[in-house]
Design a protein that fits this description.
Blueprint (H helix, E strand, L loop, with lengths): L2 E3 L14 E4 L12 H11 L2 E7 L13 E7 L1 E6 L6 E5 L3 E4 L5 E6 L4 E7 L14 H9 L15 H5 L3
Antiparallel strand pairs: 1-2, 2-7, 3-9, 4-7, 4-9, 5-6, 5-8
Length: about 170
C-alpha cells in the first residue's frame, strides 16, 4: 500500500503540487540481507534512481529545486517534518521509503542512534540545496515546475505511486 501526502506551499518553502509518496515497508525485504545499504542502493538504481548515498537527513529545513529524492530507511527510526516549520511531523522507520517531489522541505526532528537511510535521485540528477530564500522564490518555484516526472517508481518500477499519483 502506498500513501500519498499532500504538502501545501509554506513560504519560503514552495513544496509541490505532487504528493509525497510513502511506502510502508517498501524495502523491508532487503533489511535481512548482507550489505543492506549496497542492496538498497542497487535496488534504487535498478529503478532509475542514482547518485545514491548512505547517511541521515539534515536537521534543518531544506529541499531540492532541480530533482525529486527517494529516501529509504535501512535502520532505526525517526520523526521527519515535511513542508517547513509549520508542516506535519511523520514517523520514518526501518523498511519505509519516502519519495519527495522537488520542492518539498524536509527536516530530521528526532532519531534513534542507529537511524540510517539511503537516498538517491532519478535520471542521474545531482541535487541542489535550498534552505528557503524569498529573494529568489519565483525563480526557484519555476525551476521546480520544470522537473519532469521520473520514468520509474523507486519501489515498484513501472507500477506504483509515480504512475498512480504523479499525473502530468
Amino acid at each position: 500500500m502506498i500513501q500519498n501526502i499532500m504538502i501545501q506551499e509554506n513560504k519560503p518553502f514552495p513544496n509541490s503540487t505532487l504528493p509525497v509518496l510513502y511506502y510502508p515497508k517498501g524495502i523491508a525485504d532487503k533489511l535481512n540481507e548482507a550489505e543492506v545499504s549496497q542492496k538498497v542502493l542497487s535496488f534504487f538504481e535498478q529503478n532509475g534512481y542514482t547518485n545514491g548515498w548512505v547517511g541521515s537527513i539534515y536537521t534543518y529545513h531544506h529541499f531540492h529545486s532541480n530533482t525529486h529524492e527517494v529516501l529509504g530507511c535501512i535502520s532505526g527510526e525517526s520523526q521527519v517534518q515535511l513542508g517547513g516549520p509549520n508542516g506535519e511531523i511523520y514517523p520514518f522507520r526501518s523498511g519505509n521509503v519516502l519519495l519527495l517531489p522537488a520542492g518539498v522541505a524536509h527536516k530530521l526532528i528526532t532519531a534513534s542512534e542507529d537511524f540510517q537511510i539511503v537516498g538517491a535521485y532519478p535520471d542521474h540528477k545531482s541535487p541542489d540545496m535550498q534552505t528557503g530564500d524569498l529573494e529568489d522564490y519565483s525563480e526557484i518555484t519555476e525551476r521546480i515546475q520544470q522537473v519532469s516526472k521520473p520514468k520509474y517508481d523507486p519501489v515498484q518500477n513501472v507500477h506504483g505511486g509515480v504512475v498512480d499519483y504523479w499525473k502530468e
